[in-house]
Each structure stands twice: as structure tokens, then as C-alpha cells.
């Protein structure tokens, strides 16, 4: 290890043992559920856990699905670099989870769907499914490769050995949604344990929590309430607390991975309660990430390992800190590595299962002759296996793409906005029609890609790093922190197209969903109104426009 110092062979052995135990336990849970119960013989059991899951495991799985290694590495480095302003994201969690619980879950649950896209008409469905599959496949490769790369850079852990092990274990235990959910529960516990261990030991070595707080205050890392309404400001109360609501709605309201978990609940009430239970869990996760960032600052202050050349980017600094603080405590570095890879495993396995579900239910079944349950279930399992192999291939491609992956992650963060806008258009505006919905969706996607790619290219084209107080801000561009960390720019307000490219990433979801709704309504008015159509007695709560099936 280049910076923290020497680590004994015995310590490394213990760390490897703990890491291997995580992989074995995750695979074991998958195998257990593959060969117990109904043995995944029906698509209902394989894709929706036979609608038998209770509130607690569903809520922890909802949390684990997006608590990936990207967040575990990104949140502490965000706090270390920019301060605690990011903490105000927690203000968005209340409405960001309350609205899905009482607006989206009842609609999806009462229609007895298997995917969130099933209700869309064919043209809309194919367009958004293609977009979803494309971005998920890219994201799977990034999530698989990024923690392995960070681990290899700091510890020398074999890069492709870690990638291969994770990919194969995920493919193995994606033996149905029930296996994925219970493995998520186990991995969530490991994530909490790993983060807590680092925070407790780091705080003790820094002299206690009061000393950590004092050093953070002296270093201007404790941020006040910034009420600046400028949408171009990266992080303010409004971008985090209000813009974050739309981001949460895109993630927890209409995203297929989350909708699939809601639909696996035994009852609609249990699904709603699982959404409620995510709220305190998200607050705990956010707090742990912020505390870890403060502890890292208390140890290094302005004397960053990045400046010394021990690491090449901010997200690697978290693992560097872990190896530095825990190097004399055998097993604890392995525990945090297990925590890090648990985040990746839960995200990837969720992606496998959701991709297999939408491919089977929305792309294959509607276009082939009816098949038996046994054949449909076998095909679903083969799809999950195929996506597992694609994930491994994408991880290899990720190693060759370099900084382009920063754009890929930004694109993944934005595609939820147009989908959110599409569903809001359908649920709340009964006069919207198919033409308006299609044009609105295309407009939202074009706007999302235009702003996202334009913003990325604009940042990358800067030939000289920005300077503040005669101090050069180091380049923190790295694929795992595309959403969490961006360059600090001088306080000169951009104009024209550059102002659009400078829009805070926290507003992307709101901006793109609003584009879909506004354009969709305008086109619907121009092409003719559609009256309310009540096609099902089970859907009385909300409108049911024509561009749904």
C-alpha cells in the first residue's frame, strides 16, 4: 500500500477471508432460495417473489438497490471536499418517499402488474424500454468495475479477480427476486457494520467526536443553510431539498427495480409501509456518509492524500483512509471492503432481475405465442444469466472507456426524469393523448442527453483547471463520483447555452420531467383532447388516459 504503510501478511489473510465469506454467504442465500419453496418454477415466484414479502426485507432491499459502492465512496469524499451542505439532501426524503407511497404504489399494485412499463402503449413502451436497458447495462458495468478499480489502486487487490468474483456471484444468486431481496438484507447489514466500524475507530483516533467537529468547523467544512435560489448553484437548500424530491420520485416512484419490490409485497399496505420504512434508513445512510467525510477531514485536514499523490482521485481517498486507520486492526479493512462490495452486489443483482423482468414481460411475451409457465420461467432465468455475462463484458469495456464513463453515469442519473414526467402526464392529466405523450417523452430524453453531455463536454474542454485564491483545485473527474462530485468553478455566472449546461445536476430530474409534461400537454391540445376513460374498476383513484393500454 503506497501511503498508509505496511500491512502484515496475517492481516491481509484475515481481510481476504472476510471478503470471501461475504461472497460465499451471498451466493449461499441465492442457492437456498433457488432450491427451497416453489423452486422458482413460475414467473410469479421468480420475478415477484410470489408476492409474499413482508415490509422489513422489502424496505431494506429498496435501500440497498441504490446504496451502491458509488454512494459509499462518493458521499464521504463530497463532504471532505465541499463540506456538509450535501447533508440537506435528507430534507427531500420525506416528500420523495411519501408521494410514491400514496400516489404511485396504489396504481401499480391495484393493476397487478409485473413492470412499471406494462401499461404504456407499444411505441412509448419500446422507446423507454430501449433507453432503460441501454443505461442499466452501462451502469452495471460501471458499478462492477468502479469499486474493483478503487480497491486495486489502493490495496493491490487483483482487479479482474474482484470483477470476475462479483459478477459470477451476482449471476449465481439472481435466482429470483426473493433471493435478491434477502441477499440485499444481509448486504445492508454488512454495509452499516463496515461504515460504523470505520467511523468509530476513526473518531477515536482523532480524539473524539467533539474534536472531529472542531476541526471541521475550523476548516470551514460545517456548512450553514444556503438559501440562494440560483438553480446554477451546485448545492443549496433548494437544489438539494426541492430538486432532490424529483430525483427521489424518479428513483422510488417509477424506477422498475423499486416498483418490482413494491409489487412483491404481500399486500398494498405492506408495500406502502416498506416505503415509509426507507425514510429513517435513508437518513441513517446519509448521516453515516457525512460523518465519515468529517472524520476523514479531521485526520488529514487540508493535507490531502490526493495532493501528496497517494491516490489519483477523491473517491479512492475513502479506501485509502480505511487502510490507513484500520491497518493495525486485522479484519476491519476486510469488513469495509465487504461493505463496499455489498453495495455493488446489491445494485447489480437488482439490475439483473429488473432487466430480466422487463425483457420477459414487455418485450418477449407480447410478441410471441403463449408459452407454458415452466418455459417462461426458464427463459427468465436464462435472461438473468445473459445479463450477468453482459455485465462482465461491460466491466471490461468500462476499463477502456476512461472518463467517458462520467458521462454515462450522468446519463443514468437523468433518464428517470423523463419517465417520471411520462407517468405524471398519464396520471394527472386525463386529456393527454398518445401523440402528446410520445412527443413529450422524446423531448424530455433529448433535453436530458443534451444538457448532460453538453455539461460533461463543457467541463472536460476546459484547458486549465480553475483557480481560487491562487490554489489549483485538483481534477477529481472519476467515473464513480460523476453524480456526487464535480469541479468547483469560479463565481462568474455563465450565460446563453453555458447557463443551461451549468444547471445543478440535482435539478435534472425536475427539469426533464417538466419538459415531458409541458410538451406533452401542448401537443395533446394541438392534436385533440381525449376524454377520461375508466377501463377498470380497480383504478378509480387516478385518471387513465388513452396512451396507457
From TrEMBL:
Subcellular location: Apical cell membrane
Reactions catalysed according to its record: (R)-lipoate(out) + 2 Na(+)(out) = (R)-lipoate(in) + 2 Na(+)(in); biotin(out) + 2 Na(+)(out) = biotin(in) + 2 Na(+)(in); iodide(out) + 2 Na(+)(out) = iodide(in) + 2 Na(+)(in); (R)-pantothenate(out) + 2 Na(+)(out) = (R)-pantothenate(in) + 2 Na(+)(in)
Protein family membership: Belongs to the sodium:solute symporter (SSF) (TC 2.A.21) family.
Membrane topology: Multi-pass membrane protein
Biological role stated in the UniProt entry: Sodium-dependent multivitamin transporter that mediates the electrogenic transport of pantothenate, biotin, lipoate and iodide. Functions as a Na(+)-coupled substrate symporter where the stoichiometry of Na(+):substrate is 2:1, creating an electrochemical Na(+) gradient used as driving force for substrate uptake. Required for biotin and pantothenate uptake in the intestine across the brush border membrane. Plays a role in the maintenance of intestinal mucosa integrity, by providing the gut mucosa with biotin.
Any one GO biological process: pantothenate transmembrane transport
Organism: Sinocyclocheilus anshuiensis
PROSITE patterns, A to Z: NA_SOLUT_SYMP_3
Protein name per UniProt: Sodium-dependent multivitamin transporter
Lineage: Eukaryota, Metazoa, Chordata, Craniata, Vertebrata
Keyword Protease (UniProt): no
Subunit comment: Interacts with PDZD11.
Gene3D superfamilies: Sodium/glucose cotransporter
Membrane-spanning segments: 16-35, 55-75, 87-111, 132-153, 159-177, 189-210, 235-254, 275-298, 335-358, 378-398, 404-429, 436-457, 505-526
Any one cellular-component term (Gene Ontology): apical plasma membrane
Keyword vocabulary terms for this entry: Biotin, Cell membrane, Glycoprotein, Ion transport, Membrane, Sodium, Sodium transport, Symport, Transmembrane, Transmembrane helix, Transport
Family matches, as InterPro entries: Na/Glc_symporter_sf, Na/solute_symporter, Sodium:Solute_Symporter_SSF
Molecular-function GO terms, alphabetical: monoatomic ion transmembrane transporter activity; symporter activity; vitamin transmembrane transporter activity
